[in-house]
Amino acid sequence: MNHRNKNNHLGRKYGHRKSLLSNIASSLIKKKRIFTTLAKAKALRKYVEPIITKSKIDTTHSKRNIFSYLKDKIAVSELFKDTFQKVRERTGGYTRIIKIGFRTGDHASLSLIELVDFNKIYTHKKEKKSIRIRRSKKKNKKLNNE
Fold first, then answer.
1. Is residue 5 one of the residues assigned to a domain?
2. What is the distance, to the nearest Å, from the Cα of residue 84 to the centroid of all Cα atoms in its chain?
3. Hey, which of 44, 55, 57, 126 would disulfide with 79, CB 3.0 to 4.6 Å?
4. How sure is the predictor about 139, in pLDDT bands with cuts at 50, 70 and 90?
């Protein structure tokens, strides 16, 4: 039974899994999209989204906390740049996983994981809403009586 076992251990011991997720998360932050297996992408989503949430607070303490997860100065500095301003405004759901297909060697399911705000295809400009004119019943009655 698999009750109360939330984490996918990815067939690795704790130290190996921790460094794997750290490296994949830092490369996701640097490159904005990466190709990986579906299981790693789902594990990475649970790992990287709290890190991005912590990057909303621009203090030295939060930078050091994030550095303890990522172990990469370039990725940490990338999180606090102005290019991530769109991400800071978002309340959650920073990543998107798209299933690609299967790997030819071992038939593992491949996927693309990307940061949502950096994809030009799926993000579209918000269209201006047309102004709706509310017509009250009082005016209509006056027009009908005349």
1. no
2. 11
3. 55
4. low
Q: Is residue 136 part of a domain?
A: no
pLDDT at 78 over 80: yes
Q: Which structure tokens are listed for 84? A: 């991530």
Q: How confident is the model at residue 18 (pLDDT cuts 50, 70, 90)?
A: very high
Q: Model-level pTM?
A: 0.80
Tell me the CATH number at 33.
3.90.1030.10
- Of the CA atoms within 13 Å of residue 27, those in its CB half-sphere come to 13
SS3 of 10, please?
coil
Model pLDDT for residues 105-138, shown as the tens digit of each residue: 999 999 999 999 988 777 666 655 667 776 666 6
What residues pair up with 143 in beta bridges, in sequence order? none
In a domain, 115, yes or no: yes
Please give the tally of structural domains in the chain: 1
CA distance 33 to 23: 13
Distance CA 21, CA 44 (A): 6
Domain span at residue 116 reads 14-122
Residue 55, domain member (yes or no): yes
How far is it, in rounded angstroms, from Cα 39 to Cα 76? 25
